[in-house]
Amino acid sequence: MTYSNKDKFYLAVDCVIFGFDNDQLKLLLYKRDFEPEIGKWSLMGGFLKTNETLDEAASRILARITGLRDIYLEQLSAFSELNRDPADRVISIGYYALINSKEYSAEMLKQYGAKWFTFDEIPKLIFDHTEIVNRAMKRLKRKAKTQPIGFELLPSQFTITQLRNLYEAIYQRELDPANFRRKFIGMKLLDRLPIKDMNHSRKGAFLYAFNKNKYEAHTSSGFAFDLNGI
Amino acid sequence: MTYSNKDKFYLAVDCVIFGFDNDQLKLLLYKRDFEPEIGKWSLMGGFLKTNETLDEAASRILARITGLRDIYLEQLSAFSELNRDPADRVISIGYYALINSKEYSAEMLKQYGAKWFTFDEIPKLIFDHTEIVNRAMKRLKRKAKTQPIGFELLPSQFTITQLRNLYEAIYQRELDPANFRRKFIGMKLLDRLPIKDMNHSRKGAFLYAFNKNKYEAHTSSGFAFDLNGI
DNA sequence: CCAAAAGTGTTCACGCTACACCCATGC
DNA sequence: GCATGGGTGTAGCGTGAACACTTTTGG
């Protein structure tokens, strides 16, 4: 073989899975089901196989525990410290996923000992997984300012208040309701539906849906999604 | 071994090396010196070794061709398409480096058949290296807006006009000299030296130096480097 | 009528833009 | 003195921040 004098490595994929529920941003963790560190809290992970790309491996691993396919998934970075896994040299590629937490398969979660944690509840994680989570959080904060990825965490129909709660959870600060509303509606990416959510107020709040076609049309004519000023 | 039933992979590191010279942003490429595709233009690359991290491998590879150490280096992403290297399955971790092109070892470059290219001269590259370059360019554009990494591409002393030329090269558009100057000087990150560069004008332009200590001091008291509005 | 959340109006300040203008110097 | 790049002044506009205000409806 051409490269036969070169070293080979185990390659893992570890997924940071974000969800949004009850106005809180959450993280899906599971109890590791193989040695070493079996039974400890960990990110969803697995090893890359010869016949798949890293993106494919990440999707496979995500589907295994949540039962979900076609999830927003993005590569974070490679983690390669020499002793990050004390059992053997493993290079891990971190990913993060955004899921609308209403849709995941509750049974699957139970079966794999998976559980949602808010950020102040996160337990000690194995290896360098805490670092991977921190990187994912940083990336989410950055990315959410310039790409309309927040919608991945919401149901397809939502009120402006829900949308604001989401961004408040991501940035961990309060946002002015009046200004937030104007900012988002001004972008003209949302369709207002002829339906009101009557569960959270007497007046009722209109439901909106993200319109991807509008987003792409605006983008190709120079518009840039930009929440830097919120 | 714990993971002995898992697949192993060759891991490569490929470096996109940026330089700035003659008011132009350039890329350092070299003629690949091993099979397959020997003699074709390629990014600087090499294989990860068992006893080093990816960052260490990237530094090693960079030093091998340029002779330079302590270079700004940042991981981009992993590239894992099944046939990206037709000879064998290789996962590559892309890096990009910023170097002050006055400092590199010219002999080394010659010895390795390396050459600087402006962006409109870039030849066809092997494998997916063109994609890696595109990713690096995108990242540089983004990163340069929120981190003071531009200075890595300049000599330690520079005029405001040189600095503007650099940002004009990165963003491929003209910037208003007056506003650019005010913006940067207003950040209070630059020390004005009591020296004028007399090579480019009759009046002469003061030389400035980036003051990292000031940057860190400001940063820790809430300042954020931000060139979004240029 | 009142409470509470939805949604609108308005003012202010700051920062970017555009461009006019002055400065220093070698020829 | 004039051409050239360095550098300053400034008016206008757009946008975010703050917060007062109106709307709707169930109790």
Give the helices and strands, then pairings.
Two copies of one chain form a homodimer.
Chain A: E1 8-21, E2 24-31, E3 41-42, E4 44-47, H1 54-66, E5 72-79, E6 90-99, H2 106-111, E7 114-118, H3 129-146, H4 160-171, H5 177-186, E8 190-197, E9 205-210, H6 212-220
Parallel strand pairs in A: 1-6
Antiparallel strand pairs in A: 1-2, 1-4, 2-3, 2-7, 5-6, 8-9
The first copy, chain A, binds a DNA duplex (27 and 27 nucleotides) through residues 159-161, 176-179, 181-183, 198, 200-206, 229-230.
From the spread of the alpha carbons, the general shape of chain A counts as globular
State the assembly state of the protein chains.
Answer: homodimer
Q: What is the average per-residue confidence, as pLDDT of chain A, rounded to a whole number?
A: 94
Q: What fraction of the residues of chain A are assigned to beta strands by DSSP?
A: 25-35%
Low-confidence parts of chain A: none
What is the largest interface, and how many residues per chain?
A: A-B, 33 and 33 residues
Report the total helices of chain A: 6
Strand runs of chain A, count = 9
Short description:
With 230 residues, chain A is of the alpha+beta class. Helix content of chain A is 30%, strand content 28%. Chain A folds into 2 domains: 10-144, Nucleoside Triphosphate Pyrophosphohydrolase (Alpha-Beta Complex); 149-219, Winged helix-like DNA-binding domain superfamily/Winged helix DNA-binding domain (Arc Repressor Mutant, subunit A).
